[in-house]
Amino acid sequence: MLINIKKTMAILSTLLLGIMCSFCSDTIDVYVGQYGEGETDETETPVIEGKIIDIESLRNPDRGFHLECNLLADEMKSPYNDYEVYGNELYSKNVEQFGAQEDNLTLVQQYIYLTKWVSKDLDAEALANIRKVFELMKAQGYKAILRFAYNHAGLNTSGGESKQWILRHIEQLTPLLNEYIGQIATMQVGFIGAWGEWHTSPLMSDQSAKNAVVSALLRALPAPYCVEMRYPNHKKALTLEQEEYRGRIGYANDYFTAGEHLLAPGNDFIPNTDDYKQIVEEVKANNFYMSGEIPYKEDTEWGLAKLISPIKSLRILREHRYSAFDVTQNYELNIISWKQVKVNPALLNDNHILFDESYFKDDEGNDVIRSFYQFVRDHLGYRLNLQSESKVEAKGGNLEYDLTITNTGFATVINPKEVYLVLVSEDGKVAKEFKLDADPKTWIPSTEQEPNQAAKYSIKGSVAAGVSGTYKVGIWMPEKVADWKYNSVYAIKFAQTENVTHWYDDAGKYAVNLFGTVTF
User: Fold this and answer.
1) CA 435, CA 433: separation in Å to the nearest integer?
2) Of 64, 223, 402, 461, which sees the most CB atoms within 10 A?
3) Pick the residue with more confidence: 295 or 156?
4) Which residues contact 186 (CB under 8 A, 6 or more apart)?
């Protein structure tokens, strides 16, 4: 949400522009900018010849482009948009409106406004309706970037929130947050100010209230799940109940402009500033959750009515290890433009952006061009690759494995996942699960020693198979949370290559990355 603009959306103009853009050729060359200090120089960016070739997106949890949805907890509809009404089509309508049908989105920035209960207990109606939202997301395979707030009217208004009732509501929400933790990618601090953005509220001058709210949220949300704050200086000023909580506080950049808006200072995270450097160091140390959104395309003081540099944006997304990014705000300008901007290996190498060579190959192994939109979509968060040297063998009744994994995403696997090798029988059943001693959160894209090379992670071992016959072998990475473990929608898929294919069982319990065959 914009920091100083009431939520508005010109739906008709968006749809008309979308129709117009559908007639655009994907061979248009759009200037992609040049990262660095000072003014950009168009002559420094080579023209990329050729046609953009689409690539199938991976549907993976906790990462990627996300929708935005706003619901009043009492009326179960948006205070802004008539099409946002609780029901089975709540998210699908957003997907259609913003042309994301092929993007396999798994995230929604879900605002839930507790306006009716701002100065009283959340009653059975409030808690039941919040539960309905979680259940809808679960049924449709989404996770929430979750934010609670009271004030949806915007600037120059009072939400009436108080420290007393915010803390009481967090206490009341805690059982639901724990019950549905598998449905939460991250939780934004929220509650205070217009749209829960931590401004335009008397509580902003009460540091003890801010300390208490953040500590309460971190206490309510089980470790290691993260919360997000808006500004680094807000985080610096906190005094927490437990100092170790601090590493679980990431950032939500609600004013992502690549530092190119006149109001970017103090609102955006601008390269080479102290705030920017602080986030770089913090995210390296803690690998917390990062997300962002571009301001709406509005010809106003706070709107963004121009194109921002894609390559500069890409460097920021990588250096701050973004896991999620909004696809709805500024859709009709920058997001649509991103679909026309061309990306190839040379451009990425010139700007020190990691990628796996297979990303720029088609099914026949030919070199292809992708769009900037596709590349960002597919590299937010993690993108796991099983290297070709990986192997499994059957020896003396044991399954021996030697795996090499790289991560060419912007970030890593933030939330808890488990790693298994599984044996799939010839009749399409999982015969065995072997849990591996591996923590995917440690699979960061690159190291300090080789910042422009993908780090390689090795998993070696041997385990008694306990079966006989011929089996396909694959990596299964489900949710660690028990109620979500045997749900294939929430298992991690590796990038598909000639060595890796995706397999799903008929019961919807497994999504497995197959890569070998063994006979015992």
Assistant:
1) 6
2) 64
3) 295
4) 145, 146, 225, 226, 227, 228, 250, 289, 291, 323, 324, 414
Count how many residues are written for the chain.
520
User: In b/e form, how buried is each residue of 306-322, taking b as 16+ CB within 10 angstroms?
Assistant: ebbbbbbbbbbbbbbbb
In tens, the pLDDT along 454-476 reads 999 999 999 999 999 999 999 99
Q: Would you put residue 104 in left (φ > 0), alpha (ψ -120 to 50) or beta? A: left
CB atoms within 10 A of CB 390: 18
- DSSP structural state of residue 182: G
How many Cβ atoms are within 10 Å of 4's Cβ, its own excluded? 18
For 4, 165, 194, the CA distances from 154, given in Å and listed in that order, are 8, 20, 5
| Orientation angle between helical segments 11-21 and 90-97, nearest 10 degrees | 50
- Residue 457 structure tokens: 């992670």
C-beta of residue 57 within 8 angstroms of C-beta of residue 100: no
Radius of gyration (C-alpha) of the chain in whole angstroms:
23
- Report, as an integer, the average pLDDT of 34-59: 67
Residue 42 in this model has a pLDDT that exceeds 90: no
Q: Tell me the average pLDDT across 280-284.
A: 97
pTM over 0.85, yes/no: yes
Q: How high is the pLDDT of residue 46?
A: 64
Residues 6+ apart with CB under 8 A from 166: 191, 192, 209, 213, 216
What span, in angstroms and rounded, lies between the C-alpha atoms of 52 and 368? Answer: 7
User: Residue 326: which of 489, 152, 182, 111 has the closest Cα?
Assistant: 111
In this predicted structure, the answer to whether residue 80 has a pLDDT above a threshold of 50 is yes
Average pLDDT for 28-42: 35
Contact 343, 45 (CB under 8 A): no
Partners of 434 in beta bridges: 421
Indicate the SS3 state at residue 459.
strand
Across the range 116-137, mean pLDDT stands at 98
